[in-house]
Amino acid sequence: MELRYSYDGPRLLGTGGSLRRAAPLLGELFWVVYGDSYTDIDYRGVLSEFARRDVLGLMTVLRNDDRWDRSNVVFRDGRLIRYDKHARTPEMTHIDYGVALLRRAALERIPSDQPSDLADLYRELVDEGLMAGHEVMRRFYEIGSPEGLQETRVFFEKEALAMSYTSAYLSEAARVVERLDGAIIDRMVVMLADLRERGGRLFVLGVGGSAGNASHAVNDFRKICGIEAYTPVDNVSELTARVNDDGWESAFAKWLRVSRLGPRDMVLVFSVGGGDLERNISPNLVRALQYAKEVGATIGGVVGRDGGYTAKVADACLIVPTVNPDTVTPHAEAFQGVVWHLLVSHPKLKAAEMKWESAR
After folding, report:
1. Which candidate, 4, 25, 155, 322, has a CA 20 to 30 Å from the CA of 205?
2. In this structure, what are the phi and psi dihedrals at residue 284, rounded to the nearest 5 degrees?
3. Alpha-carbon span 45 to 53, nearest angstrom
4. In this predicted structure, what is the pLDDT of residue 355?
């Protein structure tokens, strides 16, 4: 980065006079940014907005309502109506944001080598309709006071933490992919292909976020693979009636019973913990799997942690590896989606083209 400075000379010229003195260093169009503020905006978008206007300047404004400083702008229907830093009125709900675009011709209105406030130039241009307005939505942070400095410091610390979390999460996801057991997935492919061949049905079970995955997966197995598939969570009335009348623990098992689950069928479990009766975690899954074993149905699963009861009784159970104990649930539920999409798109299972792949 190359920096060039313009000095006021023997006396301070104010924000306007200093800018006029710096004119030889500026292009025909230039940005004016408050040096004590952090402004998180789309600069390209602002520049594009300016290019559509026949004006000498453009001021970014923020709906402020006197929250972060005294509002000084009347901005209505996308237009700057009034700007004044000194004579403020109740209808002023916006504030100049600290980022503006000016044409060098605007500086000719500022007396040469005389003290001047840039706000006076802005007010004049607004009054004459020569200053456009562009509303931004994110607040500014300023370091012009000890309080503002502390608030800005806290903001940047939170931003840094958020960015580091994003990087860590994506890195963890990559590690999960590397550690997935492809052999178990291939075993499930064979199980599902055999299921379709013998005319069996697929029953997908899940709770919470995994229930949403179960519903989505049923759609894909039916539409893409031609496998007759169902899930109890698609019928909210029946599910809630069973929970209300018979209890949560037996809801899935009794649904499988009335669905006439048999040895030709398969149960596929999506779960973070896989079910645990002793700790009363997803007992409905445990009872459903116990019934599946009783009737001789095939069992598959995509679960997290150690897999719980599902991993103990399944014919093929993929355990999404734990790479961080704080992100077990999001990774387990996310990779359920990865795995079932792998299954339905597998050449041994896919029976129908998907929309966007067939539109090439």
Report:
1. 322
2. -65, -35
3. 13
4. 73
pLDDT for the residue numbered 359: 62
DSSP state, residue 86:
S
The Cα angle at residue 182 between residues 177 and 183, in degrees rounded to 5: 155
Per-residue DSSP letter, 58: E
- CB count within 10 Å of CB 160 equals 10
Q: 89, exposed or middle or buried, with CB in 10 Å at 0-12, 13-18, 19+? A: exposed
DSSP for residue 139: P
What Rg do the C-alpha atoms of the chain give, in angstroms?
32
User: Which residues in the chain are classed under CATH 3.90.550.10?
Assistant: 14-146
Dihedral sign, CA of 122, 128, 130, 132? Answer: positive
Nearest CA to 29 among 3, 55, 62?
A: 55
Q: Determine the length of the chain.
A: 360
CATH homologous superfamily for the domain 14-146: Spore Coat Polysaccharide Biosynthesis Protein SpsA; Chain A (3.90.550.10)
* Beta-carbon count within 10 A of 329 CB: 15
Q: What is the mean pLDDT of each run of 10 residues along the chain (360 residues)?
A: 91 94 94 91 91 93 89 93 90 93 94 91 95 92 91 89 84 93 96 97 96 97 97 96 95 97 98 92 95 98 92 96 92 96 96 74
Q: Evaluate whether 161 touches 188 at the Cβ level (below 8 Å).
A: no
For every residue of 302-338, DSSP letters joined together read EESTT-HHHHHH-SEEEEPP-S-GGGHHHHHHHHHHH
| Fold for the domain defined by 176-352 | Rossmann fold (3.40.50)
- DSSP strand E in the chain: where? 29-33, 37-38, 57-63, 73-76, 79-83, 94-103, 131-136, 141-142, 202-206, 229-230, 266-271, 298-303, 316-319
pLDDT at 166: 86
Contact 267/232 with Cβ under 8 angstroms? no
Contact 233, 210 (CB under 8 A): no
